[in-house]
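Dear Dr. H.,

I hope your travels went smoothly. While you were away I took the liberty of generating a structure for the chain from your last submission, since the lab meeting agenda had it listed for discussion. I wanted you to have the full record in hand beforehand rather than looking at slides cold. The sequence, exactly as received, is reproduced here:
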Amino acid sequence: MTNTKELAEDTCPLVYQCRLPLCTRTVNHLADLLRRHLKVIRSRWRILPPGKIAVIVLAVLRHDQRLADMAGGNGVSESTVRRWRDELIGLLAVQAPRLDRALRKVARQGGEVVLIDGTLIRTQRRTGKADRRNYSGKHRSHGLHFLALTDEKGRLIWISAARPGRTHDNTAARHDHVLAHLRAAGLGALADLGFRGLDNDMLDPVIVTGYAASRTHKLTLGEKEANRVLAVGRAPVEHGFAHLKNWRTLTKLRTDPARATRLLRALLVLTNLEVNR
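The corresponding predicted structure, in token form, is as follows:
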């Protein structure tokens, strides 16, 4: 029996159209970024114009479209779409702010506190012992741990590097020296109980985490009210994560974990373009 990739005479590839729920500003930003990059590297020709390439990459990121499907619908190869995606992700990731600069910007704008939280981005389970560290007992799933900061309104201002899914929030915060950067910028932070023990300064705490009950200590009415007020103040950080996870490529990462950091930072830039329009 002979295998062939040729289509039968009475068949043809089917192509459908799909709405991309993004603003024109985002598409133009990505297209202009690519035009400047092509000018820098002196690339005189691409099979498609920068605007069309930007739409294809945004469709891959927003709708989690398969590369082969996007390639077939636009008359290019799958490897070409993959190269465009990686190229634009790298260009966007460079624009993501560093932690110290993001905090200084919040301070200059008159902000007093930021919101901090950790999240797990689920990944495909890989075979071998090396993937065991990516298993999160809290979420009972394999994934990568990210730490993020938002301002008081829930706008993402910084996201950390990818770490194994079993990483604790406190461990990630210590690796990134979050406490030292907050003190240097003169800002405070609101956090959940997962960050208890990160800031042990009782006289002048920078990170506020609320009160935790135990078997021997039940919360008083005042402590419960303080936790309620803190939960209300922390609510916008969940909105920030929700905006970020609107990019369906994060539903379950299929990319190499080593590239996940660049992907998340690129999506942070795109998310801010959408939220601040």
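Two observations you may find useful: The chain has a mean pLDDT of 88. The chain has nine helices and seven strands.

With kind regards,
E. W.
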